[in-house]
Amino acid sequence: MLAHYRFLFLSLISVTLCLSVATPAQAQWSSYPKLTDKDWPWWRGPNLDGSANLTKEVPLPWDSEKDVKWMVEVPGRGHGSPTIAGDSIYLATCDESQGSQSILAFDRQTGQRKWATVVHEKGAMLKNAKSSGASSSVATDGERLYINFATEGKVILSALSLEGRILWQETVCDYQIHQGYGASPALYEHLVYSVADTKGGGAIAAFERTTGKLVWKQPRPSNPNYPSPIVLTVAGKPQLILTGCDKTISYHPKTGEVLWEVAGATTECVTTTVTDGQHVYSSGGYPKNHMSAIRADGSQTIAWENDERVYVPSMVIKDGYLYAVLDAGIAACWKADTGKQMWKGRLGSDISASLILVGNKIYAINEKSEGFVFEATPKELKLLGKCSIGDEMFASPVIADGCIYLRVAFYDGDKRSERLVCIGR
Fold it and tell me: What is the pLDDT of residue 29?
């Protein structure tokens, strides 16, 4: 049935995986009673660090004849990742011909579409060819859905019911598009956060999840910038971290108070930071390539920095080592506390999707939709296998309860179409 799609299977290694070990970056997903360890409820996953909670064997790489459980069409275009909770998958999409922006819900077991809600009927803001009008990922607390869209000169945060009914909408700030918009909402306790960094001066704001009431709001520097907000437990306390705009800034999650800031970033960043419990890591690509490790204790200490270009794909961290793929398709490993480079090696062509940590394995996929699995070891680049599906991928993959979920583009001549694919045993 799937033979008319272009699949390339290069090798097959069956990877047996165990539960991930909790780190200081672990999300407070367990405080949301409707969520379980089988979900991927927001950008960068349940642990906020790109790591998967796993209790089942995952096919990494996969066999195209045996491991594709289902594949369904996705109308429109977008680069946001799937969000998974309960029996549903949620995905943002944009009809670029109409300028409309929507949320779609699919059945987790079959892929059948359950509902579609138009959040904004027109006004999607488009610029860079590598961006889209739906580059943000949905966040869910298991009771509501949250999504950011840049539309008609503003960034608007919307809350929807699990059945697709719009509950409330709030404007974060006016927005002047530069390259695109892709910051995803973040959750912490009773709050949902949204950020928009723009040339005209943006904002970061916290709203009550249930009502949309504004709790606090802080102005942001007048620069274009793209990371999503993230609340990490680092240096012994929860901190809301944002990189870019020539700074790394820590905010108090409940009040918006600036806890500390340091000139430890370049102007434009995309990646979402991770932590080893003491440092946060900034990486960007304009106007210069830049990585840095910043002590998150308020001392304004930059532990180390280099000039590598990890601009778009977010990194992962494991056992004191930082792993990344440079935008040019090169994998690398550094000692997280000192910045000592352990190894570097080429995987393939340009990469925009973020890394996923699967037990002791790291999964990367490039813009040509070629997947690579390598071991999380500081000794060497140990490639475990390769696989491919479709023609193009910008959205980061997600892994939950033994399945891999991919947002893939296929081309028939110049005609582009998207699919949502579930891979599993």
Answer: 64
Is the pLDDT confidence value at 16 over 50?
A: no
Task: Output the average pLDDT for the chain.
Answer: 92
368-390 per-position pLDDT tens digit: 999 999 999 999 999 999 999 99
Is residue 11's pLDDT more than 80?
A: no
Q: How far apart are CA 309 and CA 287, in angstroms?
A: 11
pLDDT value of position 86? 96
Say how many C-beta atoms besides its own lie within 10 A of residue 48's C-beta.
26
Instruction: Decide: pTM greater than 0.90.
Output: yes
Query: Assign residue 347 a region: left if phi > 0, alpha if psi is -120 to 50, beta otherwise?
Result: alpha
pLDDT at 132 over 70: yes
Q: Does domain 7-424 have CATH number 2.60.40.1120?
A: no
Rounded to 10 degrees, what is the CA torsion of 124, 44, 324, 198? Answer: 40
Lookup: tokens for 108: 């987790």
Single out the residue of 138, 54, 55, 136 nearest to residue 89, CA to CA: 138
CB atoms within 10 A of CB 350: 15
Question: Please, is 304 exposed, middle or buried when counting C-beta atoms within 10 Å of its C-beta (0-12, 13-18, 19+)?
Answer: middle
The domain locations on the chain are 7-424
Using omega within 30 degrees of 0 as the cis cutoff, is the peptide bond preceding 287 cis? yes
